[in-house]
Structure formats: structure tokens, C-alpha cells
Amino acid sequence: MDTLTRRRFLARGGAAAAGLAAGPEVAAAVTRTAPPSALSPELAARAAGQRAMLFDSTLCVGCRSCELACNTKNDLGRKPDEIFQGRPAEDARALAPDVYTYVTFHQWEADPSTAAFGKVQCMHCIEPACVSSCPVHALHKTEAGPVVWDGDICLGCRYCMMACPFLVPRFEWESRNPAIRKCDMCADLQEKGEPPACVAACPTKALRIGTRSELLEEAHRRITNRPRRYVHHIYGEFEAGGTNFLHIAGRPFEELGYRKNLPLRSYRDYTRPAMAAIPWILGGLGLGLGAVRWLVDRRAAVAEAREPRPDDPAPDGGGA
Amino acid sequence: MTLVTLLRRPATRGVTVLSILAAIGLGLIAYRFWAGLGAVTNLSDGYPWGFWIGIDILVGIALAAGGFVVAGTVHLFGGHRFHALSRPAILTALLGYLLFMFALAVDLGRPWNIWKALINWNHGSPMFEVAWCVMFYTTVLALEFAPAVLERLGLGRLLGLFHAVVPFVVVAVLSLFAFAMTDSVAWVAVIAAMLLSWEALMRTGVMRRDRQMPVLLIMAGVMLSTLHQSSLGTLFLITDKLGPLWYTPILPLLFFLSAVMVAPAMVIVEATVSARVLRHRAETGLLDRLGRAMPYLIVTYLLVRVSDMIGRGVVLEALRGFWPAVWWWLEIGLLLTAVALFATPEFRRRPFGLPLAAWATVLGLVAHRMGVAVVGLDVPEYPRYVPHVAEVLITVGIVSLGLLAFRLAVAVLPVYEPHASPAGLAASAAPATPPQEARVLATAAQA
Q: What is the ipTM of this complex?
């Protein structure tokens, strides 16, 4: 494969070759040689067949049609004017209970004639931190792929918000019956075989839908076919154990507002050892505490038998 | 009767102040349920947890650790001489847990769904473990405190039934707990078999039982507490918002060690304060023994805390930044001070020596827990979180409520033993005797 030879070449090619090649390609070499995500094979296999989304930043023109479609489909109640009003390059928007997604706008002083866009929304992780942290499975990942929320059982503990590395779940702070709000990849539409609202609305096909393995293949194909157009990194392929929302772009992702240096392990891995220790602690204490109590007791009984003292406080008569 | 006469008595200044604080807190809580969490807190989508999680929950649960540490020492590890401290510690823990559940209901967005944690199981979630530990350990504490209530109600004859039934309740509770945590019938079988074997050994007389408290009940208390204390640390393992001075994979171990460390200190604080307020003599001899053990407990915690930081190569973070570093040194400084004070006999024997050292330990623990829950959290995308005044007032109100409840409980229930007995004579005084009751009522009348 083309990418493979390129990678081998870079790996062997030394500093000169690497220096000549565009920066992103070096980054790609690093990324691709990094250990793949530590997901279990079953989980990875299931994810491959799940619904996923691909965002190609190089095709995005920042029209915000996806935002309007999302707002309409989910009854988020914002007016088109609020969505389309002009914004400076330092876009200070954030996700909110009534903002499930938004397009970020980026410009560079060195080249003011060009702009690039990023898309912020729930990443629908393969093994989501929010799902792993939710005590009652109010947040759960459906077999089809989307991560959805069930308001009937949510306690409002906000642990999902503490856990999510992408800062996605939002809480209704002013509500008497607050909900956790975030993108659900239009799970209801997808069940009927329709694409999510944002994908259907995208006029430039910057958003695509398919199975995760199809989209990964497609993303690799685009990068391979036009290696100078793209940074050689599929954001979401390995981040946080891999996500069902994949991104490719023409600029390094941290320049597009994406969090960098995310671990390649799923966040569930960080609590897994402690949770797995629970039965061992229970069993160990069940055995150890009883044994200690028996030893202490035997010693007291022996001491008593040797030298009976009427006022000795220790013995509390056996079988009394 | 007693309760009524107590309530008819004019309130002392302390009770008045506590009542006002509690009323303010309850008023703000009512407003919070009317207007939403945003109206009384500075929490945000970037900092969804704050002061309440830190004080009400992380600190509150740690300070309730006296219950399982003292009960375990007395009934499992042969520390019968500390028996006089056991009931106050169990009462403190029980009230602490009840208050914690109340405070949690204020913090949860949808507290009316809390019982659904009983039927929707996510074995992988530390929060699920926390929820189950809270519910089950509170049950265990209530059972541990039940003998005092039975004595007070003159139902001493029910104690026989209590001892006959409770071990099996414990086995059932722990089996269910083990199943919820592991989803594995094999583990349930192992744990149930183990507990039933101990009970069988006691029933056949091979092993002696404990006349005052079913051994299995105390064991269940220690098992659930160990998991609960450590699980509060596990909660934070999944978040990447916590700074390097606090985040460590061994956070559960640190939470457990520091809870055990603070337990005797909290017993000292509780005993000296209530002796002052209720004007009875503190168990000075016993407290001094606790004080002598303190340096070992604190140094163990500090060694693990600091060597872990050295091992992860982040110890120099303690010299970087301002607030996190100051806060870290505050924790370490308070605990080192406590070690020095506890380890100096001349100081310990002064009237204020022991309580002062104990307070330093408690504050050191508060610094650690608040470091994890508030100071150490950093989400650059959001403005830094500083607690709202109402958040603080609500917590103060809930704590005041707890102190009032404690005050009421020790007035009407046989919690303290009749005389501040010298070490060693304590264990024999189990059932309530008329003089004891008279003594308790007398103290109530004085206050």
C-alpha cells in the first residue's frame, strides 16, 4: 500500500528526508506507528460495523447549515439569526443545552486569505467515558453506535461531565428538572435508515455517514490520494480509544481547536483496575478480618486460662 | 417524655446559633429546588462538581470513618479498652452518613431518581459503587447503633433476637452487594460461604462471639467502608481535569489511608468538643492512647503520598504555580505539624494539646479532599470555579443540622458511658443501667 511504503520510507529516511517532507507527514508517521488503541478485539470488531460520521474539514465552507438543521430537528429553539450572525475568528461559542454542535472558524495571520473549519459535537466514543461513569446507564451506547441519554433514570450526578475528555455533556443549570443534553447522532432518524440532520443538510458533503470501517477506509483513501491536502492523521481513529465520529483536515488538529495529546486508551481503562479489585478486597477482608478476630480471641482465651482474672475486660463469654 | 422535656427547656446560645444557621441553609435549599442549581451555585459545564462534592461528600465521608475504624478495633482487633469510644463514633458515623445523603440529594439534579440506582446496574461505574456503599453501609451503621436505641426504649429483651437475626441479614446484604459489583454468582458464593463459615464457627462455639455486637455486622461495616472510602478516590481516576499534585492511579489507596488516619483524630475532636459542650469528663486516658498511635498513621499516609509523587516524577510540581502549590504545602504542612504535636508527650498532655493536634490532622485531610475536588481541577476552557456564598451557607446549614441532631441523640440515648472510665474498665459496661440513664439525663439538664 502507498501509505505503508511512505511510512517505511519516513521511518528509515532520516532527518533530512523528514525535514523536507511537509510537517504533517512527519506527524503522520508518528501517529501511525503509535500503538493502536487498547480496545478489546470484540469491542473493536463491533465498532467497525457501527454507524459513524466522517467530517472532512477541507470540504467544509463554514456555512452552518448543519447547525440550523440540528437546531430544527432537535427543537433547540434558537432563531436562525442567532445561528448565522457573523463571528470573529476567535469564535467564543461553546456547546450548550441548546447547542448540540457548532462549526469553528480558524484563520492564520501568515495566510489571511485562507480559513479552515472544525466541527464540535459529541464524538460517540467506542467505549465512552460518560457511559462508563454513569451509575445507572442513563447514558448508553446503542448497538447501532450513537451514545444516547435516558432521562427517566438519570440522577443528575454530572459524573459524565467530569469524565468526558471532549467536554461534551451539558447540564440545564437553571432547570428544576435538569436534563443532560448533547448530540445523539439522530439515533431515531438513523433507525429509520435516514442520515442525521446535519449530514443531510451539508451542501458540500463535508459530512458523511457510514459504518466506522467504511469511513476509516474512505478517510485513509482521501489522505493517500491527496497527501499534500491533508494532515496524515484521522482524529478519532485512536483518540480516547477511538470514536465513531472521525475527522480529517488540512491543518494540524490543535490549530482547529481540537484537544491534542489525548490518550489512545479508552477512559474506562483508568477506572477498570480499581473496579476489578472490588471482589478481591471484599473476599480478602472477609477472610482476613475473621481470621484476625479468631487469633485475637484465642490469645485472650489462652491468657485467661493461664491466669484467670475476674475483672479482665477482654473476654465476652463464648456462646453467652 | 425525655424528648419533650428537653425541647421545653430554653435553648443555649450554641443551640440558638446552630438553629439559625440550619434555618438559613434549609431556606436556601428550598430556593435551590425552586430555581435550579445555577441559582445558588457557581458550578458550570466546565466545573460540574465543586464545594459540595468536596466538603459534604469527600470530607464528610472521611470524617465518618471513625465508625468503622473504632468498631473494628474494639470488636475485631481486640481493642476492648476502647469500647467507651465506640458508640459515640458509630453515632457520629451514622449521622454523618444520613447528612451526606441529604446533602447529596441537594447536589443531584434529579434526586427523586436516586432509588433507580438499585435496579439499573452499571458494574463498571465508580459512582455505582459509591451509591451502593452509601446505602448499604448506612444500613449497617443503623444496625450497629440499634442496641443503644433498644436499650433506651426498654426493649433489651429484643437484643437476643437482634443477635440471632442480624448475621443472616449481613450475609444477605453483602451477597447482594457482591452480585451488584461483579455480576458473578461465583463471587457471591465465595463471599457468602466465607461469612457463613465464620458464623457457623461462632454458633458451634469453636470461635467466641462478641456479646455486644454480632461479629459479622462489624466485619460488614469494615468491608463496605473500605470500599466506600477508596471508591471516592476511584471516582476521580476517569477525569483528566485533575492536576498532577492530586491525580494518581493510587488515589483510591490514598483516600483509604487518609480516612483511617483521620478516624482517631476525629474521635479525639468529637470527644473533646462534646465533653466541653455537654460538660462531662472526656475519656482522657483512652484518647491519649489514640494520640500515641497517630504519628504512625499520618506518616504512613505521607510516605505513600510523597513517594508516589516522586515515583511519577511530579514532585517538583509542588514548586510550580501558585494556588495548587500553596494548597499542597498546606496539606503536607498541617499533617507534619500534627505528627510533631502527637509525637511530643509534653505537648499531648496539655489540655489543648491533643485536640489541637487532632484538628491539624482533620484540616490536613480537608486540604487533600478539597485539593482533589476543587483546587486541583483545571479546565482552561472555562472561568475558574470559586464557590458561591450560598453553596457555603447550605453546607454550613446541613452541618449545623447534624450537630443539633447529635446533640439531641446524646441527650435522649445512652451514647456515653456513665463514667469517664480509666482504660481497661470500659468494656464491661454494656447494657444500660438506671444510673447510666440518670447520668445522661443529668448532663442533658445541665446543658
A: 0.88
